[in-house]
Structure formats: C-alpha cells, structure tokens
Queuine tRNA-ribosyltransferase accessory subunit 2 (Mytilinidion resinicola), 476 residues
Amino acid sequence: MSTTLSDLPPEMRAFTILKTSTTLAPRLGRLTLPGRKALETPHYLGNTSRGAVSHISQDNFQKNTSINGVYVALEDFVEKLPRQTPPLYQLESPKDESPLRDFIALPKDTVLVVGARRVPCIPCPTANTNSALSIYTSVGFRQISAEDYAAASRKVRPDIVVGLADIPYGQPQPGLKRIDKMSDRTEEWTKELVSQKNGLDKTAKAPKASYQIFAPILPLAKELQTWYLDHLIDDMLDDISGLAIYHAQFLADLPEQVQDLPRLSFDPPSSPGALLYQISLGMDIFTIPFITEATDAGISLDFAFPPSRSEVSGGEDAGKKYTLGVDMWQSEHALSVTPLSDNCSCYACTKHHRAYIQHLLSAKEMLGWVLIQIHNHAIMDAFFAGIRESIARGTFGEDKVAFEAFYKPELPEKSGQGPRVRGYQFKSGQNETKKNPAAYKVLNAPEESSSEAPTPNPDAVAGDLEKIGFAETAKS
Ligand SMILES: [Zn+2]
C-alpha cells in the first residue's frame, strides 16, 4: 500500500483498500459513504437512462435487485438550459438531501454517482470549447459550461460527482495541439469543480458541499497529460476522492500519490472477459453497458465466476466452450419449463420459466425485457461476488484463466428485435433509414379504413407520429 492517504485513520477514509499486492494487480476495497450501503469493490454501478435502470421501475429496483449504486448522466436532465430552468433544478429538497435522488425516486441508501455524459455517450457534432462540454439532451445537442456543471453539482448534491473531461468523442485521433488542449481544459474544469465545492469565497468559510469528486484521467499516455496530473496532485489532491479512468491501460501509469483512490472505469468492457482483464489491472468500480445491451437483445446472461470445476473437466464436452448468454428469442425455448439459469435465485428464475419469457418476447410484451433485466443484474451481482471471493482467496489469476477456457470470449450475437430504439441511443444523420420498423401498419393502410375506428394502440400512434415527423426517432 502506498502512503498518500495513510495519515488519515481508516474510518475517516471513504475508500479502504482491503487487499492488494502490487500495482497492476486485482484488489479488494470498500467504499463507505455516510448514510449509504457500503460498496464492496470490485463492483459495478447500475447504468441508468434518465434516472432509472432500463426496464426496471423504482419498486422493482428496491424489491428485486441488489444494485448498491447507480450512475446518472446530467445530460438526461438539463434539456432546458440555459434559457429555462430544467424541472430538476426547480425541486427543493430538505437540507442535505439530494433533489436528484428525490427526482428519480432512488432509495436513500443507494450510492448516487453523477457524470455529465451517458455511458456510452453519443458523439456531439459540435466540438467542446475552452469553457464548455458538448452534451446530448433529450431535445438535442447543447453545451454545458464547467461553471454550470459545478453549480449543478452543488444543486443536485449526489454522493459522487465525476469531473468533466475534454475527450473529443467521434472525432479523428487528436493531434498534439488538441491533446494539449484536452489536458489544459480538463485541468481548468476540475479546478472549477473543486473551487465551487469548497465555496467560492474561501475566507467566508462557506460550508463545504458534501459530495465527493472523482477526477477524470484522460485516455492518453502519461507523458501527454503530465501537466494535468502534476496540477491534480500538487493543487487538488486533498479535494479528490477518486479517479474516473477513461482507458484501462492507464492503470499502469498511475502516479503513486493517487494509488489509494478508488478507480471508476469509463472504459466500458465489451464482455465479462474484458471486465476481468480490467479487474486484473486493479480497476475497482464499473458501469457496464453490455448488461442492458444483452437485455435489449433478449439475451439472458448465463455465466459464473469461477466456472464450476466439475463442468470444466467435461467428459464428452471437453474442449467445447460454453456460451455467456442464452438468446431467448429462439423458438427452442418455447416449451422449456427450466429457469433462465439453473443456479440463479433472482425473481425471474424463481417465478417464471424460459417458455413464458420466450412468449413475452415474441408478443413484444415489456415484461419480457423486465424479467431478463432483473436476471441479468442478478448474474452480474453473483459474478462480482465470485470475483471478490476469488481475490480474497488469492486465486483470481487462475480462476480468470479457467473462465477464459470455459466460456466463449464474446456474448452471443443479437438475433431478435429489441425494444424501440430511442433518440439517445444513436446519432441522427442524413439519409438514414428508419431505426425502428413500423410497429403496427393497420391504421395506415387505406384498405383497412372503416367507420368503426379501433382503439389506437400506443405503438401504432407512435408509428403514425413518426411518419409525419413528430416522433423522437424522426429528428431532422
Ligand atoms: Zn435469474
């Protein structure tokens, strides 16, 4: 363990490292925030869309998941800035309570992490400026200044705020000049966040805001952001409680002074194998877009860490790799009365069988995706619990090798249709084809016209609106 925060007694530190060997090794930790459930790391945060984990309503979140923390993107809420005050900012909450937590009905003991952009985010057509970051709100592309972002953090009071990072998404590989700018701006923006947190007038002893700041680490080689890192360590180290890491490779280059800080990955892993790789480098906390991507594709995750030994040795199946997920669209499940996964104790697996879920998907019933999403999060909870036990036992390295030998490297390909694609899931461009097929054609077909109009189906109405250019998906 290195020395930076060791002056503080362990009970005063939000993040405690329970077990680590060297740098670039898996480690166990615990993130403890006042009034919240402790987050044992490595772990993941529920990745939200407009404040909710996709497909999971607030009551299901409490009753049927064990998610201890969520990541929320501010760009989902600031659509009216700067001309009008967005609804989120109009909500008043009792002192020390977070208006954002109330706004999204998040349980009191769940860790709330806020960043500017979704994970993964849609690249914006306009570049960031010296003072502002481009974002994609529900009404289109906007910019948020570093000052406004800091003010928003004070206003919405999450547990953790991720500092703004100047990363040119969707643009060609930055040249040296642009790289200098990335480092300059990120330093400037992080400084703004720190100084606003501490109160602008330091002499007045304004009370410190209660949230913690996770400083971004740019997806650049260490030499290219030395200037930023030096300032971070020299001027802001006392105000930084964690790191937001945009490229897992950078863990090899982390300066010693920040080794003890919790590391939140913004380098989204594409598969469980990629996740294990990042953990092997010492990453602590993740947002994992592939959980919801699998759910949207109707794929129920089906893996465990470490894989069960008896199956590895395999008899007839020796040499055959197992799939990481089951495509529930396949008609082979239509008569299957087994649960999604044999050893899973989630709501979906204990109450329903594959045939029912296959039927729900075929009927495009929302409940199908709800059940798969509950199950997929339960699989991830068990996966991370297995990882933590494995690190504690000191067998992570060999368990990782066994996992790679047992399972296929990637999740199965999507075969069926997902729920309707939304505006925030893609960037609209010119000459594009429709992202969603027409859901229901009867109302549009002239030969179907009848004096007795059927009750409009919401999907059909959406299809009609899309035709005349009003739907979310038909942006110009
Ligand atoms: Zn399950």
Observations:
- The longest helix spans residues 366-393.
- Residues 1-6, 447-456, 460-476 have pLDDT under 50 and may be disordered.
- The pocket of zinc ion is lined by residues 340-341, 344, 346, 348-349, 375, 378 (CB under 6 Å).
- Residues 301-417 form one domain.
